[in-house]
């Protein structure tokens, strides 16, 4: 199995931390180089049975640097071409304008979306259902996966969920 996965989320939700954990330090540093392609490859996760190519879609998660209508359309179309989208949120903060900006961009896409609830090391497990409540009516999610990118909790099950969508 092989496919493309886009990681979307407002700044500081833990996207880079997640990539570092899954792919490793070297690639993450490489990914900081500016690239001009519309889908920039951030790293490739390879196992015996799967290859997941993580990409960043510029323009989707930067409300402060709004692109023009045309570039926004380019960014949204890029999301149609991936096999899965990881929409990463921070469970330590309520859903906010930055999250809603992304939700608007994701509406109407056919691409399966996994809600990745990051930083669960900061909350009690009992609080996770309330996080799901905040998002479940916004989009049609393929799966809800709580993780700690920092500590590595539940990252393997997330990779398993991604593989199901490839
Ligand atoms: P990005 O902007 O989405 O790429 O976010 P980063 O990966 O740069 O992370 C932003 C901050 O959140 C950093 O200080 C990380 O150490 C921290 N962080 C990321 N993931 C976790 C997590 O699972 N738990 C905790 N407690 N902190 C995290
Ligand atoms: Mg980052």
TrEMBL record:
Residues 118-121 are annotated as: G4. Residues 9-16 are annotated as: G1. Its main location: cytoplasm. Coiled coil: none annotated. Keywords: Cell membrane, Cytoplasm, GTP-binding, Membrane, Nucleotide-binding, Ribosome biogenesis, RNA-binding, rRNA-binding. It is found in: Cytoplasm; Cell membrane. Residues 35-39 are annotated as: G2. Residues 56-59 are annotated as: G3. Residues 147-149 are annotated as: G5. Residues 1-166 form the Era-type G domain. GTP binds at residues 9-16, 56-60, 118-121. It is a peripheral membrane protein. Belongs to the TRAFAC class TrmE-Era-EngA-EngB-Septin-like GTPase superfamily. Era GTPase family. An essential GTPase that binds both GDP and GTP, with rapid nucleotide exchange. Plays a role in 16S rRNA processing and 30S ribosomal subunit biogenesis and possibly also in cell cycle regulation and energy metabolism. Monomer. This is GTPase Era. The lineage of its organism: Bacteria, Bacillati, Bacillota, Bacilli, Bacillales. The gene is era. The chain holds residues 7 to 172 of 302 of the full protein.
């Amino acid at each position: 199995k092989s496919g493309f996965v886009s990681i979307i989320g407002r700044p500081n939700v833990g996207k880079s931390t997640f990539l570092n954990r899954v792919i490793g330090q070297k690639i993450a540093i490489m990914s900081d180089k500016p690239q001009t392609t519309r889908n920039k490859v951030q790293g490739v996760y390879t196992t015996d049975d799967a290859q997941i190519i993580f990409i960043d879609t510029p323009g989707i998660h930067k409300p402060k640097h709004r692109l023009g209508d045309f570039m926004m359309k380019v960014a949204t179309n890029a999301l149609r071409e991936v096999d899965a989208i990881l929409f990463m949120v921070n469970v330590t903060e309520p859903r906010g304008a930055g999250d809603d900006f992304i939700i608007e961009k994701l509406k109407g896409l056919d691409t399966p979306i996994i809600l990745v609830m990051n930083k669960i090391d900061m909350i009690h497990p009992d609080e996770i259902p309330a996080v799901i409540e905040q998002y479940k009516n916004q989009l049609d999610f393929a799966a809800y996966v709580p993780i700690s990118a920092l500590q590595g909790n539940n990252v393997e099950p997330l990779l398993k969920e991604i593989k199901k969508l490839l």
